[in-house]
Amino acid sequence: MTVASRLRTLVAAVTAVVAALALAPAALADTATPERPVASGAHAIDNIYRAIIGTTMVIFILVGGWLIYSAIRFRARPGRPIDPPQVHGSSRLEWGWTIVPVLILIGLAGYTFHKLPDVKDAPSDAMVVNVLAQQFQFSYRYGANSGAALGKTPSTATTLVVPEDTAVKLEVRSKDVDHDWWVPALGPKVDAIPGQTTTTWFRANETGTYHGQCAEFCGVGHSTMAITVKVVSASDWESYAGGLK
Amino acid sequence: MVTEAVAPPGAARHAPARTGFWSWVATVDHKRIGALYLITTLFFFVAGGLMALAMRIQLESANNQVISADTYDRVFTMHGTTMVFLFVVPVMAAFGNYMVPLMIGARDMAFPRLNAASLWLLILGGLVMYSGFVWGGGAADAGWTAYPPLSVQSPGHGIDLWIVGLHIITISSVIGAVNFICTIHNMRAPGMRLTRMPLFVWTIDVYAFMILLALPLLSGALTMLLLDRNYGTSFYAASHYGPLLYQHLFWAFGHPEVYVVALPGFGMISEIVPVFSRKPLFGYRALVYATVAIAFLGFLVWGHHMFAVGMSTPLQVWFMVASMAIAVPTGVKIFNWIGTMWMGQIRFEPPMLFATGFILVFLIGGLSGIALAIFPFDLYVTDSYFVVAHFHYVMGSIPVFAVLGGLHYWYPKMTGRMLDRGLAIRSFWVLFVGFNLTFFPMHAMGLSGMPRRIATYTNTDWNIYNQIATVGAFTLAIGVLMVLINCLRSLRFGRIAPADPWGGYTLEWYTTSPPPPHNFDSLPPIRSERPLDDLRREAAAAARA
Predict the structure, then answer these.
(1) SS3 for A201?
(2) pLDDT value, residue B14
(3) Cα(B376)–Cα(B210) distance, rounded to whole angstroms?
(4) Which chain A residues are Cβ-neighbours of B2 within 8 angstroms?
């Protein structure tokens, strides 16, 4: 390899790495992340996602870089030996690239378990909302720990109103076919399956109106099956709940 | 020079085989059956691709009304079913049929007439399934997963025809699998030990065993669905967890199915990379173990498709850990391919370009697979476009890069003609750009909340991603068209292919292109997984002495 071509390879490699590093934060800003999280579970998911994307991007740059480097560096050219070394493998290397991925995966799994309670475990004093899915809408009825709203339905049938900074546990049922309740800003989704009650929970930490839609194919109106959740302040909630009929 | 072709003893052209329409219809020659398989599956690939274009036109921007929701549902159902059952799984049988007997030095498949039966059953099954478009009040419309109760309630007979069609295709696949297993385990040439078998043959063997184990689950699940729909049974009744039962049965079949598709694709890459790097496979045994490990683990991870059904945390943890474990043998494959290229003398002929493109694209799909295995994150992205992005980066990269790579690699052997090299290289780049433009933005769609299987959407934030994907889909279509044109044109105008245009290592390059009906006049001694390389080295040593 001549000095000039060695230099060219080096310049190309450095340029590629710099470009990747420069573009990464910009790309990560919005398009490459989940919707801005406004609930505890959503924050946990966002954190887990960032751990995953960070790890996998490093792996992609290293392995993809190794592939592209090999492709360029070892392409057939005049003046190179016709018969390359006939290497049949290397146990040491192969054990290495078996064990290192195992360690990386253990790390990712460990971090996930650390963040898990925020996604999975609804507090026992959570306000319960019964969600009923049917083609093609979700309807709601307030349950335990919902104070004055107990047993009542929201004033606008398809808009779930909940207080800020309060754990809300959804108990989801379906009247007809499978559906799925998902509001991205609030985090995880949960299937509605006939004959079963499934649960999820969230603790919204910001007032506002958040949108989602049914995420399990449920028939011809699937794409119209919208979800609206309105998170209000504690005082607004008191007056809202008191005013429900 | 070790790339020189080893002249096969029977290089003199044989008398041409019988030609004419009936000689093809009635054929039991594995090569003709393989060719007919290939034509059939490519036909369905184009049909599935056209349906994909219809979806990409409809989803190009918010609130489009190009096709109705009802039509959209049938189109995405048939797109998925076509691509999985009528293209990617049987296209492996196409190459398997053509290549396995040649690669193991056999005269034909173990059961030639059974082989013909699996071809014609595949065509029949496809026609029955598609007949839903004409009869039965529209084709199936419950997704390729056909979850009850929706699939039980769907009116008309589209889903019934879909089930019967799938049953016929399943019979085709199962008898094909039996045939592959019998052929590979009984008909190898003297010296062709299991540890000297080409990797592609290994992967077809594992593919066949997986089909035998996985497809009966689908048949059982679909039979119960058919009975529930038409004869008043209640296998999937909500009162006793029927909807969940179906999902378990479907995915216990469905996830192994992913590896049914992937493994022979890996096998093709494992053939191409060493030949064009002029090196033996780096870690042949590790690649075999990795193949078997992926197949085994593939049966233990189905629950990761169902993280949102209200599964208990310990079960979620199990399915997460098992799914992540698959990344390890898959990583071994990728590393060993790059290890094969390392220090090689890589010739970027079209097959090698496709293989390199495959490794890069599949790496992305593998990494997003790790993300989806991590179930708290999966609860966010499951059933969103992120999943669509992921499975096209795995299930879609196999046909577009591995299978088309295999097609470019073996086309001279099958037809006796070379493909146009320039057109092949251009089509690779068009496909590579088109593929990534189509499927990469789908990660962003999913992350920003776009569910899959929606016929339209109102959120204009998703426009830009969808527009890029639509442009990508048309680019991809142009790439596929270029490949097809190249294949058709080269049949007549291609340069005559020698027996061994690439300096191949395996036995199929030891006979004429195309091979005579009986395949081989004689076979070389087989002392390693690269008998032709051994021959060349012996010839070179003899010439020096």
Answers:
(1) strand
(2) 56
(3) 30
(4) 82-83
> Comparing C-alpha atoms, which of B384, B85, B401 is closest to residue B257?
B85
Average of per-residue pLDDT values in chain B: 94
What is the C-alpha separation between B3 and B500, in angstroms, rounded? 10
Q: Which tokens is A80 given?
A: 């190179």
Q: How far apart are CA B376 and CA B313, in angstroms?
A: 10
Instruction: Answer yes or no: are the C-beta atoms of B106 and B183 closer than 8 Å.
Output: yes
Which residue in chain A has the smallest CA separation from B155? A219
Structure tokens at B387: 């999943």
Which chain B residues are closer than 8 Å to A83 by Cβ?
1-2, 278, 345
Q: Nearest by CB to B310, which of A44, A63, A196?
A: A196
Going by C-alpha positions, the residue among B533, B541, B545 that lies closest to residue B2 is B533
Which residues of chain B does A97 touch, with a Cβ-Cβ cutoff of 8 Å? 331-332, 335
Residue B139 CB neighbour total at 10 angstroms:
24
Minimal Cβ distance to A116: which of B153, B347, B376: B376
CA distance B86 to B38: 11
Report the alpha-carbon distance of residue B39 to residue B50 in Å, rounded: 17
Rounded Cα distance between B389 and B398, Å, is 14
Which pTM value belongs to this model?
A: 0.93
Q: Tokens at residue A73, please? A: 């560096």
- Residue B110 is inside which H or E element, if any? none
How far is Cα A102 from Cα B328, in angstroms, rounded to an integer? 7
Name the residues of B annotated as catalytic.
79, 108, 144, 172-173, 255, 257, 259, 270, 304-305, 330, 333, 452
| Residues whose CB falls within 8 Å of the CB of residue A19, separated by 6 or more in sequence, listed in order | none
Could you tell me if A161 and A16 are in contact, meaning their C-beta atoms sit under 8 angstroms apart?
no
Burial of B435 (0-12, 13-18, 19+ CB in 10 A): buried
Residues contacting residue A192 through CB under 8 Å, at least 6 positions apart: A131, A133, A172, A173, A174, A178, A179, A180, A181, A198, A216
Q: How many CA atoms lie within 13 A of B205 on its CB side?
A: 21
- Tell me the nearest-neighbour CA distance from B69 into chain A, angstroms: 6
Chain A residues with CB inside 8 Å of B147's CB? 177-178, 216-217
Q: Contact A140/A129 with Cβ under 8 angstroms?
A: yes
d(CA B372, CA B389): 11
Contact criterion met (CB < 8 Å) for A105 and B286: no
Q: Which of A75, A101, A176 lies at the smallest CB-CB distance from B331? A: A101
| Whole-number Å distance between alpha carbons of B506 and B4 | 14
| Digit-coded pLDDT (tens) for A161-214 | 999 999 999 999 999 999 999 999 999 999 999 999 999 999 999 999 999 999
State the DSSP code for B318.
H
Beta bridge partners of A210: A229
Structure token digits, residue B115: 């082989």
Q: Is the peptide bond before B375 cis (omega within 30 degrees of 0)?
A: no
Write out chain A residues lying below 8 Å of B449, CB-based.
35, 182, 184, 212
The CA distance from A239 to the nearest CA of chain B, in Å, is: 32
- Give ∠ CA B327-B386-A55 in degrees, rounded to 5: 45
CB contact (8 A) between residue B345 and residue A63: no
Q: Hey, are the CB atoms on A74 and B277 less than 8 Å from each other?
A: yes
Please state the rounded mean pLDDT for residues B419-430. Answer: 97
Mean pLDDT, residues B433-442? 96
* Residue A86 to residue B345, Cβ atoms within 8 A: no
pLDDT above 70 covers a percentage of chain B that reads: 97
Token digits of residue B228: 């529930």
ipTM above 0.85, yes or no: yes
Nearest-angstrom CA–CA distance, B312 and B310: 7
